[in-house]
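User: Small ask, check this?
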Amino acid sequence: MTESRILLIRKSIAEAQRIESEQHGLDAYLQARLPGLHHSIALPRDNAVPALRLFVTRYIEQVPDFIEALTDLTESAGVYNYAKRFLTIAEDYFFQPPELVEANEGMRALIDEAYLAHRLIEELNDRVIMTCGVPLSPMDMTLANIIVHDIIGEEFANQLDLAVHYSIEALFETENFCKAADFERYLKQHHKNGWKFAIDKWPCLARDLKITLDLDDNAPPPNVH
Protein backbone atom coordinates (compact mmCIF):
# COMPACT_ATOMS: atom_id res chain seq x y z
CA MET A 1 0.00 0.00 0.00
CA THR A 2 1.09 3.54 -0.68
CA GLU A 3 -0.49 6.55 0.98
CA SER A 4 -0.98 8.14 -2.43
CA ARG A 5 -2.98 5.16 -3.72
CA ILE A 6 -5.20 5.13 -0.65
CA LEU A 7 -5.67 8.89 -1.00
CA LEU A 8 -6.75 8.39 -4.63
CA ILE A 9 -9.29 5.77 -3.56
CA ARG A 10 -10.67 8.11 -0.92
CA LYS A 11 -10.86 10.92 -3.52
CA SER A 12 -12.70 8.65 -5.95
CA ILE A 13 -15.21 7.80 -3.21
CA ALA A 14 -15.66 11.49 -2.37
CA GLU A 15 -16.22 12.31 -6.05
CA ALA A 16 -18.72 9.45 -6.34
CA GLN A 17 -20.58 10.85 -3.33
CA ARG A 18 -20.65 14.29 -4.97
CA ILE A 19 -22.14 12.79 -8.14
CA GLU A 20 -24.59 10.82 -6.02
CA SER A 21 -25.81 13.98 -4.30
CA GLU A 22 -26.72 15.39 -7.72
CA GLN A 23 -27.99 12.33 -9.58
CA HIS A 24 -29.25 9.96 -6.85
CA GLY A 25 -28.37 6.95 -8.97
CA LEU A 26 -27.69 4.72 -5.97
CA ASP A 27 -31.15 5.38 -4.51
CA ALA A 28 -32.77 4.52 -7.84
CA TYR A 29 -30.69 1.34 -8.10
CA LEU A 30 -31.50 0.23 -4.55
CA GLN A 31 -35.19 1.00 -5.01
CA ALA A 32 -35.21 -1.22 -8.09
CA ARG A 33 -33.34 -3.99 -6.28
CA LEU A 34 -35.48 -3.87 -3.14
CA PRO A 35 -38.34 -6.18 -4.24
CA GLY A 36 -35.91 -8.92 -5.25
CA LEU A 37 -33.81 -8.99 -2.09
CA HIS A 38 -33.79 -12.24 -0.14
CA HIS A 39 -36.44 -12.16 2.58
CA SER A 40 -33.85 -13.05 5.22
CA ILE A 41 -32.36 -9.53 4.84
CA ALA A 42 -34.23 -7.60 7.53
CA LEU A 43 -34.66 -3.89 6.75
CA PRO A 44 -36.39 -1.07 8.62
CA ARG A 45 -39.94 -0.94 7.31
CA ASP A 46 -40.29 2.82 7.00
CA ASN A 47 -36.93 3.70 5.43
CA ALA A 48 -35.56 0.64 3.68
CA VAL A 49 -33.83 2.53 0.86
CA PRO A 50 -32.12 5.11 3.13
CA ALA A 51 -30.96 2.25 5.38
CA LEU A 52 -29.55 0.38 2.39
CA ARG A 53 -27.93 3.56 1.07
CA LEU A 54 -26.17 4.13 4.40
CA PHE A 55 -25.10 0.50 4.54
CA VAL A 56 -23.67 0.51 1.00
CA THR A 57 -21.98 3.87 1.54
CA ARG A 58 -20.27 2.66 4.71
CA TYR A 59 -19.35 -0.59 2.97
CA ILE A 60 -17.57 1.33 0.20
CA GLU A 61 -15.93 3.83 2.57
CA GLN A 62 -14.44 1.07 4.70
CA VAL A 63 -12.32 -0.42 1.93
CA PRO A 64 -9.46 2.09 2.33
CA ASP A 65 -9.93 1.93 6.12
CA PHE A 66 -9.48 -1.84 6.08
CA ILE A 67 -6.49 -1.73 3.74
CA GLU A 68 -4.80 0.87 5.94
CA ALA A 69 -5.57 -1.04 9.14
CA LEU A 70 -4.30 -4.35 7.80
CA THR A 71 -1.21 -2.65 6.41
CA ASP A 72 -0.43 -1.07 9.79
CA LEU A 73 -1.19 -4.31 11.59
CA THR A 74 1.10 -6.47 9.47
CA GLU A 75 3.85 -3.86 9.19
CA SER A 76 4.04 -3.51 12.97
CA ALA A 77 4.38 -7.28 13.25
CA GLY A 78 6.99 -7.52 10.50
CA VAL A 79 4.82 -9.66 8.20
CA TYR A 80 3.61 -7.06 5.69
CA ASN A 81 5.32 -8.88 2.81
CA TYR A 82 2.86 -11.74 3.26
CA ALA A 83 -0.16 -9.46 2.85
CA LYS A 84 1.21 -6.86 0.42
CA ARG A 85 0.37 -8.65 -2.83
CA PHE A 86 -3.24 -9.15 -1.79
CA LEU A 87 -3.71 -5.61 -0.52
CA THR A 88 -2.30 -4.31 -3.79
CA ILE A 89 -4.94 -6.31 -5.68
CA ALA A 90 -7.65 -4.88 -3.41
CA GLU A 91 -6.44 -1.39 -4.33
CA ASP A 92 -6.18 -2.28 -8.01
CA TYR A 93 -9.87 -3.17 -8.12
CA PHE A 94 -10.54 0.58 -7.84
CA PHE A 95 -7.94 1.59 -10.43
CA GLN A 96 -8.29 -1.27 -12.94
CA PRO A 97 -11.46 -3.24 -12.22
CA PRO A 98 -11.97 -6.53 -14.10
CA GLU A 99 -13.57 -6.23 -17.53
CA LEU A 100 -16.75 -7.87 -16.27
CA VAL A 101 -17.42 -4.89 -13.96
CA GLU A 102 -20.06 -2.70 -15.55
CA ALA A 103 -19.51 1.02 -16.18
CA ASN A 104 -21.66 3.17 -13.89
CA GLU A 105 -21.51 6.56 -12.21
CA GLY A 106 -21.53 7.79 -8.64
CA MET A 107 -21.64 5.39 -5.72
CA ARG A 108 -23.30 2.77 -7.88
CA ALA A 109 -20.02 2.55 -9.80
CA LEU A 110 -18.07 1.62 -6.67
CA ILE A 111 -20.28 -1.14 -5.23
CA ASP A 112 -18.69 -3.82 -7.41
CA GLU A 113 -15.13 -2.67 -6.70
CA ALA A 114 -15.81 -2.53 -2.96
CA TYR A 115 -17.34 -6.02 -3.05
CA LEU A 116 -14.26 -7.39 -4.81
CA ALA A 117 -11.92 -5.79 -2.27
CA HIS A 118 -13.89 -6.94 0.78
CA ARG A 119 -14.29 -10.44 -0.61
CA LEU A 120 -10.55 -10.66 -1.34
CA ILE A 121 -9.71 -9.77 2.26
CA GLU A 122 -12.35 -12.21 3.52
CA GLU A 123 -11.01 -15.03 1.35
CA LEU A 124 -7.42 -14.27 2.39
CA ASN A 125 -8.47 -14.45 6.03
CA ASP A 126 -10.30 -17.73 5.44
CA ARG A 127 -7.31 -19.22 3.63
CA VAL A 128 -4.95 -18.26 6.46
CA ILE A 129 -7.37 -19.79 8.99
CA MET A 130 -7.49 -23.04 7.00
CA THR A 131 -3.71 -23.14 6.55
CA CYS A 132 -2.46 -21.74 9.85
CA GLY A 133 -5.39 -22.13 12.25
CA VAL A 134 -5.53 -18.40 13.11
CA PRO A 135 -6.89 -15.49 11.03
CA LEU A 136 -4.56 -12.94 9.50
CA SER A 137 -6.77 -10.13 10.79
CA PRO A 138 -9.61 -9.77 13.33
CA MET A 139 -12.17 -8.39 10.88
CA ASP A 140 -15.20 -10.35 9.74
CA MET A 141 -17.14 -8.95 6.78
CA THR A 142 -19.03 -12.16 6.02
CA LEU A 143 -22.47 -10.78 6.91
CA ALA A 144 -21.94 -7.53 5.01
CA ASN A 145 -20.60 -9.40 1.99
CA ILE A 146 -23.62 -11.71 1.94
CA ILE A 147 -25.96 -8.71 1.93
CA VAL A 148 -24.05 -6.91 -0.84
CA HIS A 149 -23.86 -10.19 -2.79
CA ASP A 150 -27.66 -10.21 -2.85
CA ILE A 151 -27.92 -6.50 -3.67
CA ILE A 152 -25.78 -6.78 -6.80
CA GLY A 153 -27.45 -10.03 -7.85
CA GLU A 154 -26.59 -13.71 -7.62
CA GLU A 155 -25.30 -14.27 -11.15
CA PHE A 156 -23.05 -11.22 -11.32
CA ALA A 157 -21.85 -11.55 -7.72
CA ASN A 158 -20.82 -15.14 -8.42
CA GLN A 159 -18.70 -13.91 -11.34
CA LEU A 160 -16.98 -11.43 -9.03
CA ASP A 161 -16.45 -14.18 -6.46
CA LEU A 162 -14.80 -16.28 -9.15
CA ALA A 163 -12.42 -13.43 -10.02
CA VAL A 164 -11.42 -13.20 -6.35
CA HIS A 165 -10.99 -16.97 -6.18
CA TYR A 166 -8.60 -16.94 -9.14
CA SER A 167 -6.51 -14.19 -7.52
CA ILE A 168 -6.22 -16.13 -4.26
CA GLU A 169 -5.43 -19.40 -6.01
CA ALA A 170 -2.74 -17.79 -8.14
CA LEU A 171 -0.92 -16.01 -5.31
CA PHE A 172 -1.49 -17.86 -2.05
CA GLU A 173 1.47 -20.11 -1.27
CA THR A 174 -0.13 -22.75 0.93
CA GLU A 175 3.06 -24.64 1.69
CA ASN A 176 5.14 -21.63 2.74
CA PHE A 177 2.69 -19.06 4.04
CA CYS A 178 2.84 -19.95 7.74
CA LYS A 179 6.34 -21.32 8.04
CA ALA A 180 8.40 -18.13 8.30
CA ALA A 181 9.47 -17.30 11.87
CA ASP A 182 8.01 -13.78 11.79
CA PHE A 183 4.66 -15.04 10.60
CA GLU A 184 4.52 -17.83 13.17
CA ARG A 185 5.33 -15.31 15.91
CA TYR A 186 2.60 -12.97 14.62
CA LEU A 187 -0.05 -15.67 14.62
CA LYS A 188 0.91 -17.03 18.04
CA GLN A 189 0.87 -13.54 19.53
CA HIS A 190 -2.66 -12.79 18.35
CA HIS A 191 -3.90 -16.28 19.11
CA LYS A 192 -2.75 -15.73 22.69
CA ASN A 193 -4.15 -12.25 23.24
CA GLY A 194 -7.30 -12.67 21.12
CA TRP A 195 -6.47 -9.58 19.04
CA LYS A 196 -6.92 -7.44 22.17
CA PHE A 197 -4.86 -4.59 20.77
CA ALA A 198 -5.43 -5.01 17.04
CA ILE A 199 -9.23 -5.21 17.10
CA ASP A 200 -9.59 -1.47 17.73
CA LYS A 201 -8.04 -0.76 14.32
CA TRP A 202 -11.00 -2.33 12.52
CA PRO A 203 -14.29 -0.43 12.14
CA CYS A 204 -17.38 -2.59 12.45
CA LEU A 205 -20.00 -2.16 9.75
CA ALA A 206 -22.78 -4.14 11.41
CA ARG A 207 -22.44 -2.75 14.93
CA ASP A 208 -24.69 0.30 14.51
CA LEU A 209 -26.58 -0.29 11.26
CA LYS A 210 -30.12 -1.66 11.28
CA ILE A 211 -29.66 -4.28 8.59
CA THR A 212 -29.40 -7.93 9.62
CA LEU A 213 -30.01 -11.44 8.36
CA ASP A 214 -33.12 -13.00 9.87
CA LEU A 215 -32.45 -16.73 9.85
CA ASP A 216 -35.30 -17.87 12.06
CA ASP A 217 -37.06 -19.80 9.30
CA ASN A 218 -35.83 -22.78 7.32
CA ALA A 219 -35.05 -20.93 4.13
CA PRO A 220 -31.34 -20.62 3.37
CA PRO A 221 -29.81 -17.14 3.24
CA PRO A 222 -28.27 -15.75 0.07
CA ASN A 223 -24.89 -17.38 -0.51
CA VAL A 224 -21.40 -16.06 -1.12
CA HIS A 225 -19.49 -18.64 -3.12
The chain is about 65% helix and 0% strand. Residues 3-213 form one domain. The chain has one domain: 3-213. The mean pLDDT is 81.
